Fold this sequence. Notes:
Layout: E1 5-7, E2 10-12, E3 18-23, H1 26-30, E4 33-39, E5 45-54, E6 58-63, E7 71-76, E8 81-86, E9 95-102, E10 108-110, E11 114-118
Parallel strand pairs: 2-11
Antiparallel strand pairs: 1-3, 3-8, 4-5, 4-9, 5-6, 7-8, 9-10, 9-11
Amino acid sequence: QVPLEDSGGGLVQPGGSLRLSCGASERMFREYRMGWFRQASGKGRELVVSITTSRTVGTITNYAEFVKGRFAITKDRPKNTIYLQMNNLKPEDTAVYYCNHVRASGADVWGQGTQVTVSS
């Protein structure tokens, strides 16, 4: 099992931008789901965005309501890498962001997490 390698976090002022990266394996891009979660201090882990690939319904991208229009997930298949472009960041976006892979069985693989802090 190749661990997910997430990176790109940092300190940014409100309204700023960051791009997170996650290096994965070829298998993780084939099946079943890739995406990003986040966990703020004292809070539970929550979905930011996911991409699900299914033989029956194709590809489904699911964004959390609080990031629609601000964040975007992209894939670079030759590099087995996904990105999270984050624009117009808000203090409420402050959290540890985790890259995530879910197998068809439901088993999870997680990156180590990268800290995003949005503050003046």
